[in-house]
Design a protein that fits this description.
This protein is 65% helix and 2% strand. The protein is mostly helical. It has a two-stranded antiparallel sheet with strand order 1-2.
Length: 488
Amino acid sequence: MRKTFYRLIAYYLSIFIIMIGIIQIMPLAVLPFYPEEISYAYCFLIPGITAMAIGMMMKYLLRDTEIVKLEKNYDAVLIVLIWLSAIFVSTFPWMLKGDYNFTQASFEMTSGFSTTGLSVVDVENTPHIFLMFRSLTLFIGGVGLVLIITSAFSDKYGLNLYNAEGHTDRLMPNLAKSARLILSIYSSYIALGALGYIIFGMPVFDAVNTAIAAVSTGGFSVLNDSIYGYHSLPIEIVTIVLMMLGQTSFILHLALIKKKFSKIFDHCETRFFIFLAVVFITLMCINVYTTGYASGLGQILRVSVFQFVTCITTTGFVSVPTLVGLPSGFVTIMILMMLVGGDLESTGGGIKQYRVIVVLKGILQQIKNTVRNYKTVTTDFITRAGKKSELTESEVSAMSSYILFYLLLFLAGSLIFTLYGNNLQDSMFEFVSAISTVGLSVGITNYNAPAVILWTATVGMFLGRLEIMVVFQSILRIAKDVIKKENI
């Protein structure tokens, strides 16, 4: 039976490899606007055509594969292989360009598909076709490779695969329709955001790329100075709105479309976000004022609000000249917000606010139980989009385990960065930016960074996007099958 599953995995993978090949040639659409970049077409055509040919050959050879439902954790194996394939194939355009080695290209493409935004690219000296390719990876990575395929196919056997990618946001009874709805919502926000940017003076190419990066909470910019480079308050405000939309659960977007505004406010993550914003923006304002980093209420608020939003939404845009020199307390708050991250069912990364809420409720419940009569039985509830559900001990335990594992990986990655001479705060900042798929950088990850630094960040970004457990489930599944085979 295991052979059947692996054959089916290979069959499904062939379909995705064909699509990955198509993705490689999509950036060619910018050539009519930038015909002088036609010389770079081969960088995309070679890997694109090759991937499509390999995918079609695999699909033909496996055409007699029996379609069955994948058992537990085999869907995780497929998800990991799909994402690794997308990243691997997408490294070739950068390597064919001649300026990047495999490590750098893998870092850049993992950053793109994971919607992180860390970069080793000098964007102001990079052809438009490559910048659009980066933004395309943000779009696909934010929505999800599986979701995009699902939008074109029925969901007869797709739900496990869809959930394994980190989606639980099934908005409609039919999975394919749900996927198309998410795509339409996502695309509409990008179009409106780009229009807003253009109205406030941003060039069209910049506007499209920045809107994609903001809604996908990716943070790739076409300027080395990010949003600060535009020196525009209206552009910063549009960016804040788009980042907020990107980190918001798709369940709430559906409520917004249906004008069921009460569901938006009767949602635990909405309330938690408001609480975090009030407390930590206040602390950030106090810190930049007392340290003299900024003066004037308007400037203090401008710096604090934008940096708070870019961290908690895990986007990675900046509205200050450089992150180096920010007050230490301000940076500490940024690290905490990057750890917390966005909503559970959104393009945002991090631990996710819902998990933090569940664990905090569990802790509070434990405290209450210590002072109550031991015979008293209490039940705690949690509300999502107006629906109240019982908070079980198993859910609290699962969320607690996830957060603990997440923090252990965060500390391990930070330790590796310190071994290369970086101070602890900078190391923690840089690695949490990677594992929480944020993209803010104090300069540790760059074009000339040691390979170990780049690969550590690459692994962090990959684990963060697939929410850790999927990767380890796939490794354990394969290891278990290998051990069984050896024992036969």
